[in-house]
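Thread title: Can someone regenerate the structure for this chain?

I was given the following input by a collaborator and told the matching structure tokens would be attached. They weren't. Posting the sequence so someone can regenerate them.
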Amino acid sequence: QLQASGGGLVQPGGSLRLSCAISASMHSFNVMGWYRQTPGKQRELVAARISGGSTDYVDSVKGRFTISTDNAKNTVYLQMNSLKAEDTAVYYCHANQLVGGIRYDFWGQGTQVTVSS
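Best answer:
Regenerated them for you:
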């Protein structure tokens, strides 16, 4: 239901844009976001967009990453600028729904981002 793309190899200081195509109306989701994970570490929330439009970012990416949505394309983006080696990770898109008081979580497959010279 979620299809992530856009990862790759980029030099430090470079930019990448990740895309997450969702096979449903984005209005049905309460929160959409991006997580990342490196070997041996827990998956961490990088950026989230809450229904209503507010956004939240982990401190380490504030001012560098921007989450946005295109409702017409049912796609969530993560624009990543000024990339650093520590941004290297597998990135996952995520969305959740609240239906009848029950939370449902949906994950896309990961896309590898490698920042290296």
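The two ends are 34 Å apart (CA to CA).
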